[in-house]
Amino acid sequence: MLVADALRLGGAILSQYPDMLAPQLIGRLLPEMESNPHVKSLLEQCDAEGIEHCGLLPSYHCSHTPGGPLKYSLEGHQFAVFGFCLTNDLRYIVSVSNKFITWDLSTSDLTREVIPGIEGIMQELVLSPDNKYSIAHTNNSQVRMV
């Protein structure tokens, strides 16, 4: 379960850069190395073979460890996120910057992305009470509802 959680936490990076597998596992699982012989064996393999795929391998614990407070890293915006809301059923989160993104909180999957085609950055996101609409205003005085 530790390895699966480490892969989930590093999923956004690994989907873009699969050669970062060894650094992601080492950076996240290093504190578990001494107490778990299977993790120790895996990290020793990462250390020995990972250098062929990535020239930088962590020497110290440098990423969130599974079981900590971080559950997911939701990455999909090019710009800073200026607003986010949870749906009433707590199943989804909607975030906004230059686009609206809806995330499934049970899997961290991006379930919907809407690019409204406007100039500027959207701010201050609000969801309608029935969660059917997302509304945000922009830094250049436009309002968008999707």
Automatic annotation (TrEMBL):
SUPFAM superfamilies in the cross-refs: WD40 repeat-like
InterPro entries: NACHT-WD_repeat, WD40/YVTN_repeat-like_dom_sf, WD40_repeat_dom_sf
Protein name (record): NACHT and WD repeat domain-containing protein 2
Species of provenance: Halocaridina rubra
